[in-house]
Amino acid sequence: MRLYSLSVLYKGDPKVHLLKAAYDVSTFNFFQRSSVQEFMTFTSQLIAERSALGSRASVKEQEYLCHVYVRSDGLAGVVIADNEYPQRVCFTLLDKVLEEFSRQVSKMDWPSGSPATISYSALDEYLSKYQVQSPAG
Predict the structure, then answer these.
(1) pLDDT over threshold 70, residue 133
(2) Per the database record, which ranges form the Longin domain (predicted)?
(3) Is the pLDDT of residue 109 over 50?
(4) Which candidate, 20, 59, 112, 122, has a CA 20 to 30 Å from the CA of 93?
């Protein structure tokens, strides 16, 4: 069971943009990592864009399961995991991350924010904390 990406996005007008993200692409071939990361960023934005405010969903994309939560204030979170990762845990993680993010990052910064301008460093920590290590790994 693995988590591959955890993203915080803002669903504003006219489109969704990434505020902060963390990736774990260590299981991929070195030469595939940047394209896998790009795919995850693109997929996260697309899923958030297609989800209504105040909704939660799980979407299968290739061999991944993408869990999205879009709050009614436009803040959205996406977790990309493998098919075995428990859905309930993904939504618990998204709730926690979005709640903490909204307390630490001013709502004024969401519409114009980007990964370079938003200072919120907990995503990498959450991604590794929620990573389920297989007994063999």
Answers:
(1) no
(2) 8-130
(3) yes
(4) 112
